[in-house]
Amino acid sequence: MRRALMSVAVVSALAVAALTAGQATAAPSAPEPVQPMQFGMHVPDIAQGTDPSIAYGSIRLWDSGVAWGQVEQANNKYWWNGLDAAISNANSQQVRTLYVLGSTPKWAASNTKQGTYPNKGAASMPSMKEWKAWVTAVVQRYAGSIEAYQIWNEANLTTFWQGTPKQMAQLTSEAYKIIRRYDPTAKVISASSTVRLQSAYKKFFPAYLKELKKLKWPVDAIAVHLYPPSKGTPATRAGYITQVQADMRKAGVPASRELWDTEINYGIKGPGSGNPDKDIEGPTAAAWVAQTYLDNIRLGVARSYWYFWDRSVDLVGIQMFDGTLGSVGFQSVYTWLNGKFYTCASGDVNTCQLGDNADPQVVAWASTGSGTFVVPAGVTQTCTALNQCTAVVPGSNVTIGSMPQWFGIARS
After folding, report:
1. What kind and span of H or E run contains 122?
2. Which domains, and CATH codes, for the chain?
């Protein structure tokens, strides 16, 4: 607690040096340190025992072979083996599980022509009776083993949902009641909305929030997917965060409800023909992954789940598996932030102060272009998100670009 108070209260030479970079604007200090679960991951083969070589703190079970229709393969006929294995392996890796309760099984679909993934009819509205029975079965079986339940995946896209925002809010409310009854400490996460498809986002997201408000906000967090267009960057994502937060304020979302980004990557094809798929490789991959989690604490996103840890796949722009520079960036930012109190500021050079006078630490990066950063007093070393370290001299000027750099005391 003493260190927490120092980090929040002391305006040290470290903080002053950080704020001199590019007319930075300070953000509120963190009341709590960064937690491991803020570093989320998708691991499609988790049920088969895949264990990422990097440190992460939470997992989202989607595209893992354990969707509703893959578990309840016929009405009241459950195949629990895959979900049991996925949760058991996640628990053995000491990471927290977020489970997506939708989509509708084919046998429960009101219209089998609505949606094709992970089965025909997956985007249709289930009967409330079947939905409640499913949620009850899952929560009763896994109470204490699943940290959080997400209602649906990308409900603003007709690929995944063709009901109304009101119907999705009703599903959310009924699931909330069941989860609170059988596992009261578990978190309830809203259906996610993809932001980059702006017309679909604007049609669904505000209307869904309006309906959730009528039902007294039966969620603990609001979820979005912050993939930029294929040509976008972390700066594009930061703009989306600002947009979503403005929409949440306009809807009257209580401040106690967190904002979660439950899928993120870059370079994914679309929207439109002007955004072909794009590979983000080399140092840029490490830089953008690190920026993603730094922007979370700078801008107020409580959690992000990287999509995904798997062998090379054309779908995503930044590959994440053993030996990739994306995984190096993930591990670096996890090491920098995990367990740290912080005070962040935005400017030509963004900064997050992590240490205090006795242990000065700052991370600096530019969302666009570059800027000058003054090395704080007491600092002896800088390390990039590629974990490449060099000595520095306090008071000297360093040019900072898109590659995040940690500044602190050299560790033996």
Report:
1. none
2. 2-27+343-408 (2.60.40), 35-337 (3.20.20.80)
